[in-house]
Design goal:
Oligomer: single chain
Helix content: 55-70%
Number of helices: 5
Radius of gyration: 11 Å
Shape: globular
Number of strands: 0
Largest sheet: none
Structural class: mainly alpha
Strand content: under 5%
Length: 78
């Protein structure tokens, strides 16, 4: 999956997400350029949710984990 694809996928899945997961989606869509420098904790803090919610969000959009998603998109560990 490429980075542009993940954002399109988030938008496609948006209506199936819980309200808390939508906060994560909104955060990631708003902070596209910063995502490679953000940890799961940074995303959780920015979205005002728990790290568990970020993990559930990742699973809801078909990723194994936050880190695995970043690796698959950008080819690097965070």
């Amino acid at each position: 999956m490429y980075k542009d694809d993940i954002y399109k996928w988030i938008i496609e899945c948006y209506n199936t997400l819980t309200p808390s997961e939508k906060k994560v989606a909104d955060c990631l869509l708003a902070k596209k350029s910063a995502i490679t420098t953000m940890s799961i904790t940074d995303v959780a803090d920015a979205a005002d949710v728990s790290t568990a919610t970020v993990t559930r969000f990742c699973r809801s959009i078909g990723l194994d984990s936050f880190a695995d998603g970043i690796v698959s998109i950008y080819g690097t560990d965070i």
